[in-house]
Every structure is written in C-alpha cells, then in structure tokens.
What we know:
- It comes from Pseudooceanicola nanhaiensis.
- The protein is α/β, with parallel strands linked by helices.
- It has 13 helices and 14 strands.
Amino acid sequence: MRRKNLMDRLRRSRRDIEDRLVRFAGEEHGVMIPVTIFFLLILLTVCGIGVDIMRQEMVRAKVQTTLDRAILAAADLDQELVPEDVVRDYFDKSGILDYLTEVTVDQGSTHRIVTASAQTQMKTQFLSSIGFPSFQINAYGRAEESLGDAEISLVVDISGSMGSNQKIQRLRSAAKEFVDTVILDESRGAVSINLIPYTAQVNAGPEIMNRLNIPRKHGYSSCVLFPDSAFRTTAIDTQTAYEQAEHFELYGNTSGDDPILNPSCPQKDYEEIMSFSQDKLALKQRISQLTDRANTSIHIGMKWAVGMLDPNFQPVVNSMVGAGLIDSDFRGRPTAWTGGSLKTIILMTDGENVDTYGITPQAYGSPSQRYHWATKGLVSWVEANVDRSRRSEFYFRRSSARNSDALLESVCNAAKDAGILVWSVGFEVGNHGANVMRNCASSPNHFFRVEGVEITEAFRSIARQLNKLKLTQ
C-alpha cells in the first residue's frame, strides 16, 4: 500500500514538472532581457572606445598645437632668444616638456629653420580590456622664416605744391626712413627699389630712354609720352617707338635766352628715375635732393612704377646691369609674374591730377623752335605775342584732369590684376584726391590719408608690413 502511494506521488510530481516545463517553454515574459543585456554590453564597449579615442585626440591636438606655436616663435628672425630654448619653454609652460623628443635649428643671416618632434604614450581606460593598453601620440613640425625677394617702386610727388607747408622736407625724411627699413644689410640682393619722382612728367633719364629706342627730338630732357592705350596694360613695350615729350614750361620768360627753370619734364640728373637700387646711401642722397617742380600727373608716375615691375622691362635692366649701371644682383629683374618675388608700389601725392598740355607739331618741328621753347614760357610767350585766334596753333590740352584720373584708374587696375600690391598715400589731399588714391590702392586698408608729420608714420607702417610680407613661412 505504501509502495503504491509512493508511486502515485512520483507520477503526480513528474506530471507537475512536465506541466511546468511546458508552461515555461510557452511563456513570453522577459524574453528580450538577454538580448538587451547583450546590446548594452556592445554599446558600453563602443562608447568606451570612443572615450579613449577622444582623449587621444585631445592630447594629440594639445601637443601639436604647442609644437606649432613653439617652432613658429623660435623661427622668427626677430627672435633674440636661443631657438631651442624657446621651443622648450613653450612645452614647459604647457606642462608637457617630457613629451619633447628633438629640436633642430638651421639658420643663416637671412633664414632660420626650426624642426621639432614630440612623442608620448597615453594609457587607455576601456581599450585595455581588448588588448590595447595605450596609444602612441606623435607630433612633428617644421617652421621656416626667410627674407624673400622684393621689387619695389617708390613713386613720389615733386609737383609745385610740395614746396608749401614743409611737405617736401617731410617727404624726404619719411622716404629715407623707408629705405633704411626695407633694405637690410643681411638681405643683399633681395630687395630692389625704383625711385620715381614725378611732376607733370617723369624724367626717365638718357640711359633708359636710349634702351627703349625712343627717337629723340631734343637733348634737353628725357621724358616719354605714353598713348592712352598704354595705361590699360602693365608693360612698357621695348619694341614700341614711344614719342619723346617736348621740353617746355607753361609760364616763364617771354624774352631772353636764359634756360627755363621749371620745365614740365624735370631735367636734373637727381630727378631721374633711379632703377633697381639697393644702395641705401645713394637712394637717400637722391631723395635729399628732391625739390618741388611743376604740375601733377599721377598717372604718368604710376605708369612708370608698374612698367618697371613688368617682366617686359627685363631687357632694359639686363642691359644696364651689363653697363655697370645696376647691381649685378638684379640681373633678370623684373622677374616673371610667377617668379615668387613680391612686387609692390608705394604711390604718393599731395594733390590730384590737373590738365596737362603739349606743344603742337608745327610749333616744335625744328631745332630753332625747340630751342625757343627751352628758353620761354609757353603760355606766357604765346599770350604776349600771338593773337587769341591763333593760339591753338602753338599748344593744346593733352589730357584733362578727368581723363588723367581715368588713365590712373586703368593702370592701377592693371597692376592689381597682375598681382602687384599697391599702397597709396594722400598727403594733405582734398576729398577728390583722397578718393582717387583710395581707389588705386589694393584695398582701403592700403590707403593712407595723412597730414603733416603723419607721412612718416604712413611710410613707416608700409615698410613694416612689407618686411612681414617678405617673410616666407
């Protein structure tokens, strides 16, 4: 009996277990828990990897930024401290001096190259569990600063109005300081200056005139008449037979044979263009001799400034180098537009363009006529000796002030389109003159409107900025 009861209980227990197993197998509650746990583990792993990678990038960025700043400061040619000490100080201040592995310095009188590298190991917090206990972080950098080549045209106004208010004296002082600042003894052969004084005309000088193959009408002076079309381009074409300008002054003697004193084309040798010079003493001596002359033709000064930076002018320069008139360092200048030289113009005036005049061909055809106008004031003599109805037979208006402004705008645009950096200085100018000069500059920030002694600061600022632009990094 007992045995039978035991067997019954066992059978019931078995059925209960089977029933429970069947119910368990069919139960759906909690089925996603294992899957959720699995994906949570994956998500935590991925997030952990992201945290480690982000930490690695933060450290790498800090090291690289510190290194970049350090080598740039150390490579600065104005930096007086030992370059390696500068780099180490940057890393020390950032608290990562131990990361710095190597600093090398290569320097000369006109260049400095600083190279540095850094390395560190960053322990991981999550990736170590899958076999990556640390990241190696590397940083490398190279900074170079050197004095590059520069071709500068310095265009200065010597018109009659420069004789007032000590303007010519202040120009001399400012221009001489400019020369001292941009031409450095340690950068010989790098920087050349074309000094271009202008009034109603520009005295190119006989050496340039002869090399441009310009037929001479006279030997009194050496100025060129550019056609209006020439102001639309940067080039002074050595194959074009430009016309020589007449030698005269508008107002002066009506009798006698004394030479005119204030010709529209300056005739003194110290008023000639000084081409591609790096002789600081000679440039400053020439600047010291500048004096006020006739009217204002800004566009002609600018045309010469641009033309002497155009590669088409190179045959003239090479010929003058061969004749010992230009330093041999500048053979091959002006360089090609893509040659890497900084080409820049500083254009200065104290006024604005005015009407310009010329002598008619019939009044300037013979040597005796040319001699006559070399000793008489053109308008003064004509008004004193010629009936009003016939005066147009003697002189004419070559360019109105408005036309000259348009020519200036054209040649300024040609310069900027070619990549020439144009600075302009309006020295005690009116609003119209200021607007014209501002439009000529490469940007409004490249225009300076100054009064009195402020011209020195304007030239000083331009010189400082040019020195920075000459640096290559």
